[in-house]
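Narrative of activities, Objective 1.

The group set out to show that a structural description can be obtained from nothing but a protein's sequence at a throughput compatible with the screening campaign. Below is one input-output pair from the validation batch, recorded exactly as produced.
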Amino acid sequence: MNRKLLDKLTFSVVPFKAAFRSLFIFRVSHTPRRIWNLWKILFSMQISRLLKTPFVWGIPPMVMIEPTNICNLKCPLCPSGNGDMARPRGRLSLQNFKKLLDDIGRHVYQIQFWNQGEPFLNKEFLDMVRYAKKYGVMTQTSTNGHFIRSLEDALSIVNSGLDQIIFSLDGTNPETYAKYRVGGDFNIVLKGLEFLSQAKEELKSRTPLIELQFLVFKHNQDELVRIVEIAKKNKAERIAFKTAQIYSDEQGFEFLPGDESLNRYEYDGQHFKLKSELPNWCKRLWLNTTINWDGSVSPCCFDKDADFAMAYLFEENIRFKQVFKNKKYRAFRRKILTDRKSVEMCRNCTEGMEEPYARIVELNDEVSLRRFIAESNQPLAEEASSEA
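Output recorded for this entry:
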């Protein structure tokens, strides 16, 4: 692909241009303490990579906090939806969340309210967002979109101060959508989008930024341009096209698209495997962490069952800083720096892939949008109808 420089520059999978625009939308307090923590963790990360020995100064600027691991849908590739998850189900209490934020809130930049499960199934979720915003933290969530049933619901979301909301919408019609989002209702999701856009207009709010997430499968790979049209119609500002993650060859044959550019795996004649070799490196072990609803601290979101839990914050009544620098966490970092492929969950991880596992398209960037449409080789709806 001949893409311009600014379209090639990314922060993880977020285009540089998109990240830069977000600075003027998201409400974050850049305090000296927060900046100092960011500098310390970045410096220690680079030293660790250079010397192949884990050094940790500061705490991660981005923290994933799981409101719940319960979900209303039965998505076949999701451990929460398909029943493969072994850890107990439950919801994070507001009391435990406040205790956690009082510990880390002055240091972190971003809280991602997701992991497994549907955040809006926790009735205290928006109270958590409001509490996080008191600390000046950027807040994001990801939802299947089934719990914004009225304008009142949408107004509550906007008034909470939530900075970004990601809607999972992997189809452009009820039939395609339901092939993966089992138990979901395509029209309810669209209505929720409509309510949220209306609420933002009524309150004259730029937040939350609305992003659609489209997982690309065999059954929807021809709908890439059509979902752009739906997103624009419903006033979303961004779409993330993500390649699917599988856990078995059977799932690969059933769900993965044939187009190599839409697939993070390759088939070697016997099994599906990631296209890229695993480097002995992972920046997530410095920049991110995952705190599950029960207080278990996982190194990342790929640890679906908390098999590598570093501690249990709420049970052990300890501060997060102690956990992030404990012997177990340091030993895990050391293993990743020397022999990452020996860790099973890392062998199915996107960190370090040569090609991005996702592509984000800014709907207000006409140049990048036209380039994406041209590269997709899929006609716009009006073009398709005129050809017919």
